[in-house]
Amino acid sequence: MKQLKELLKENKFLVGVELVNSRGIIQQANSQKTLNLANKLCEDKRIDWLSITDSAGGNPTMSPDFLAKQVLKTGKNTIIHLSCKDLNRNGLESLAWKYSSEGFNNLLVISGDYPIDGYQGVAQGVFDLDSVGLLKMLNEMNAGLKVKGRKPNSMIELDRTNFFLGCAVSPFKFSEAEQIMQYEKLKLKVRTGANFIISQLGYDIRKSHELLCFMKESNISIPAIGYVYLLSAGVANIFNKDLIPGCVVSDEFLKKIKEEKKSDDKGKSFFIDFAAKQFVVLKAMGYKGVYIGGIHKYEDFEAIMKKVDEYKNANWLDFVKELSNPQANEFYYYSIEKNTGLSDIKNINPVYLNFKKSSFSKHISLSYRLSRLWHSLFFAYNAPFFNMCKSYYKFLEKRQGKSLDKLSYFNERFWKSLFFRCKECGDCSLPDISYLCPLSQCEKNQRNGPCGGSSKDKCEASKLGKDCIWVRAYARNKYFSGNTRNLLNRRPVINNNDLKNTSGWANCFLLKDHNAYMGRGEAK
């Protein structure tokens, strides 16, 4: 059996199919149905791998490795989704060792959907690491993870793993801030060691093409795999209402679907045909493969592939108009190429280039202006008063627990709680996110860019309809500098929990927090 990493190097268009686990033991009807489907898919030589989700949609399901073991027995490649929502960093490392020991090396590393269900109420999301932090840890495991030895100040190197790591990105975001931050986070993921890309779910083929154009512009050469999801009218309605994070069906497309639902087969033939056309166009545009979801019966996969074969000699550009189903007034990074209806890589959208400050001004507050000033005077490593503050906190360090030390910490907590809703993590990311606290203002504590779950600027998990903090950070950054490319132009941030309930200011000036290994520039 050729490994997935080898297949992706070949001159071949790959096909993967998604398996979604159910909740319950395998002997139950739903779980048995999934297992039977997996067995049939494994027999199909057109399929190069099966991809197994990790509690998709935030619902608890069977662990993905059970199905993965059944798939591995047949000689088929598997990709296991590994998300950050249910386990802390130790749990994720432990699970990674288990997967590596059992021969599961292909992992799709994601932050994961915020939990929406659980035993006697909604589970608490963990998000100790985000997808970038998890990529970093897994790549260090590949290189030989170095951990503390038994002897004082000693380090030992653990056995190397052989993970082949994928990441996700959504090209289907509505606003400029959401979309550009998705692209910038993609670049950070690639720098951190992602080996392949799978796009999230949407039905605007121009956006799918835009992702390829952005990758080319950014010199990202790793394989990209497009997502084809076999819709039904009911699922389309759920996606349209943003009930599944990161899945986009526009209002106009939903109207078209409702019309198709009136047919004798409830739109089934339309959905099969649409999926096949997506397959054909993604291949023609330059994707390395497709990832087919929404398959509940083997016959559905067979029907899609039959249609794909029918279209093998068709002009794929004839399908572009039908497959372009944008949200009203959504943002595109590139202008449209009029002859094809796709992205024009040579022309960036004038809306992005010729922006007006007023369009971002609602996120600019007096406290943020003062934070920028304070940062430039005290907290930046080249600030005029940085060394003075460093000396002061060295003085306090020798007097921990004394009155002056307590008074200084009380003063910090008061002001940071008042202006930033500080949760006293001690490893402060305020300067990284335009002075927005990820611990108190992001449900997933995302320190390395946004997750993929926001919708029209709003946080996936917020019941109050709050704007995503990375949308706000983007607006602040662009308002002052016009540069949207420096928020994530850095190394990944891994929160140091050893510093919890200690002075973030002291840790900054004494070079104990994450900024010590990143190097901090000017305020953003």
Distance between the termini: 49 Å
The residue fraction in helices comes out at 40-55%
Number of domains: 2
The outline comes out as: globular
Give a quick account of the main beta sheet: strands, pairing sense, barrel closure.
8 strands, parallel, barrel
Give a written overview of the molecule:
The structure is a single chain. The chain has 524 residues and is α/β, with parallel strands linked by helices. It has two domains: 4-337, TIM Barrel (Alpha-Beta Barrel), CATH 3.20.20.220; 357-518, no CATH class. It has 20 helices and twelve strands. The protein has helices at 4-7, 29-43, 64-73, 89-101, 131-143, 176-192, 205-217, 233-240, 251-260, 268-285, 298-310, 320-323, 350-353, 366-379, 386-397, 403-420, 438-441, 469-481, 504-509, 515-518, and strands spanning 14-19, 49-52, 77-83, 106-110, 146-148, 155-157, 164-169, 196-199, 224-229, 289-293, 334-337, 342-348. The protein has an eight-stranded parallel barrel, surrounded by five helices. A two-stranded antiparallel sheet has the order 5-6. α5 (131-143) packs parallel to α6, α7 (205-217) packs parallel to α10 (268-285) and α8 packs antiparallel against α9. The longest helix is centred in the middle third of the chain and has 18 residues, at 268-285. It is globular, with a radius of gyration of 24 Å. The termini are far apart. The model has no long low-confidence stretch (mean pLDDT 94).
